[in-house]
Specification:
Layout: H1 2-14, E1 29-33, E2 36-44, E3 47-57, E4 61-69, E5 74-81, E6 84-85, E7 87-91, E8 94-104, E9 107-117, E10 121-131, H2 137-165
Antiparallel strand pairs: 1-2, 2-10, 3-9, 4-8, 4-10, 5-6, 5-9, 7-8
Length: about 170
């Protein structure tokens, strides 16, 4: 629970330090707090575009990402998070993408969104992040004790079998 609170505070603080790329894509943004967030861009000019959105994860964990076009004027060419590609598909005039259960390490993460726009295009997406579980001290103690009991039982059984063979 304490780790989760630290995660929430760090993610809220990092939302102020979000980096964006390119003056032409100044509307691209990411909003991240409490282990989840949204991102998007609107008013994308005609032609190719690449948006780079940065955010910081204070701990390692697992991320789930979705993205969809909000208008018929955007065609995704590639969408990645730190080089891990989204599965992309088109349904009619709309494009969709997702990346589920991606393991992520702590640090700065870059969401890269590339595609083409016919003019005034837009997209939106969501992020959810779960911190990696860290066992409680009592869990570690119980695991070590259990391994000790198993080792002791194996050692006793091995001595007992040697006596039976002789």
């Amino acid at each position: 629970m304490r780790t989760f609170k630290k995660l929430v505070l760090a993610l809220a603080a990092s939302s102020a330090a979000v980096g964006l790329s390119g003056a032409a894509n100044a509307a691209a943004s990411i909003s991240y707090a409490g282990g989840s967030g949204t991102f998007g861009n609107s008013g994308i000019a005609a032609g190719s575009f690449t948006d780079l959105l940065n955010f910081t994860l204070p701990v390692s964990g697992t991320g789930n990402f979705t993205i969809t076009t909000s208008s018929t004027g955007v065609d995704f060419k590639n969408v990645t998070i730190d080089g891990h590609a989204f599965s992309l598909t088109s349904v009619g005039p709309f494009d969709y993408g997702f990346l589920i259960g991606q393991a992520l390490t702590a640090g700065v993460k870059t969401l890269s969104i590339g595609g083409t726009s016919t003019g005034n295009g837009s997209y939106g997406g969501s992020i959810t992040f779960s911190a990696a579980a860290v066992p409680e001290p009592a869990t570690w103690a119980m695991m070590i004790g259990g391994l000790g009991l198993v080792g002791g039982a194996m050692r006793r059984r091995a001595k007992h079998q040697q006596l039976a063979v002789a």
